[in-house]
Amino acid sequence: MQTPAAFEYERATSVEGAIASLQRLGSEARVIAGGHSLLPMMKLRLANPEHLIDINDLTELSYIREEDAEIRIGALTRHVDLLKSELLFRHAPLFRDAENVIADPVVRNRGTIGGSLCQADAAEDLSAVCTAIKAKAVVRGADGERVVEMADFHVGPYMTAVGDGELLTEVRIPLRRKGGSAHEKVERRAGDWAIAAASAAVWLEGRTIVDAGIGLSAVGLTTIHLTRAEELLRGEAPSDELFAMAGEIASADCAPSADGRGPVDYKRHLAGVLTRRALLRATARALYQEV
Amino acid sequence: MDVSISINGEAVSRDVEPRQLLVHFIRETPGLTGTHWGCDTSNCGACVVQMDGEPVKSCTILAVMCEGHEIRTVESLEVDGQLDPIQMGFHETHALQCGFCTPGMLMTTRALLDENPNPTDDEIRTAISGAICRCTGYKNIVSAVRWAAEYEAAQSGAAATQEV
User: Fold this and answer.
1) What mean pLDDT do residues B99-113 have?
2) So what's the architecture of A59-174 in CATH?
3) Which of A182, A275, B145, B159 allows an S-S link to A250, with CB 3.0 to 4.6 Å?
4) Nearest-CB residue to A106 (from B18, B20, B56)
């Protein structure tokens, strides 16, 4: 039988209360939401928090809404709600691409966007999605809120910019004109972690790419932010050749390791192919509002 | 710590360690062993129960997290000797052999039909994609869900006719 080691449990009744508990308990405390990453890690003793702060009752952190030219997603919003949201699909269709292939529908009833991002597993899809779409994370502590760019959010394997005594409360996606996005993933079987996955977003003016975002999953120790390929795309007209070059950068700049899901050269190849495909689909969506 | 959970409509209370998983609480406290304990890693789906009407994997939820929530297990499907249509479907189409995955499959597909009374085969396969069956090859499980959907549609059609 796999059971976590003993810990103290506390059910938060307010965001402020959760933050106060996290402040008091410091690094020995972890937040639990869906628990579908944390509890398996606790069973395996890969995580051994002495205190769990359960935030599932903080329903004020569960929402997807448009506000101040942003889509704002509460940290407790579950995968199933991200999958079904028409608002999110209209402005950032890569979320639905990803949510269709994150775990399985029963797990998606529990897992949350905040938990996924804070888990900071390099193989996790939403970290690449949020990197590509240039999301921002709202982190709240006792002294108020700060907003962290997704590029600065992941600071290492399973490590984020959220400090002891802080809580990720919201994810913000800037609404920008003439954008398109897509997420492409290859997995061994339904619901599995990616062998590799690529998220891409492009923003156009006329026929010119004015900005692009690309994130890769499962091909490095952290989510890979493909800045060199983003620079290549800026100011260029979209074309198969251009996206093939971006794919080559993806193959070169990722850092996969060989495991049961495949050898390094295969994963590099896959990262390139998926980057090219995600860019093509993102651009098609930007140009023709294809969904 | 003391926890009180509504299981199949009855409040079940016990002093438990916070680390106790819901699947073990269900099996040990009210002794409802219909919910099976399988892979322990939220992959196999044998432990699926409904929490406030949604299927969830009870090996990956702490019992203490369920205080104030409604849990329904496979034992709630049959009422006074009358099988739920989803159970009838599994019986009619031979959708089980060893039966280990069946409680999870039943609770997952019961929730599917509650949300979507007429699912396509693809939708059924997606719904059970988080559940593993080593006997049937899934084909008869999909048939069972179709059987139940058609049975329920016929029943509600008959009820509507009677009302007229």
Assistant:
1) 98
2) 2-Layer Sandwich (3.30)
3) A275
4) B56
Q: Which residue has the tokens 């359960």?
A: A54
Domain ranges across chain A: 8-54, 59-174, 179-286
What is the DSSP code (8-state) at residue A261? T
Nearest Cα of chain A lies from the Cα of B40 at a distance, in angstroms, of: 7
Q: Which residues contact B139 (CB under 8 A, 6 or more apart)?
A: none
pLDDT tens for A124-135 read: 999 999 999 999
Q: Which regions of chain A are under pLDDT 70?
A: 289-291
Cross-strand pairs, A214:
A200
Cβ-defined contact of A56 to B54 (cutoff 8 Å): no
For residue B129, which residues of chain A lie inside 8 Å, CB to CB? Answer: 104-105, 190-191
Q: Which residues pair with A112 in a beta bridge?
A: A78
Q: What distance in Å separates the CA atoms of residue A156 and residue A191, rounded to the nearest whole number?
A: 25
Q: Quick check: B61 and A9 CB within 8 A? A: no
Predicted structure pTM score: 0.95
Quick check: A248 and A216 in contact, CB under 8 A? no
Residues 102-131 of B with CB under 8 A from A: 108, 126-127, 129-131
- Is ipTM strictly over 0.90? yes
Which architecture does CATH list for A179-286?
Answer: 2-Layer Sandwich (3.30)
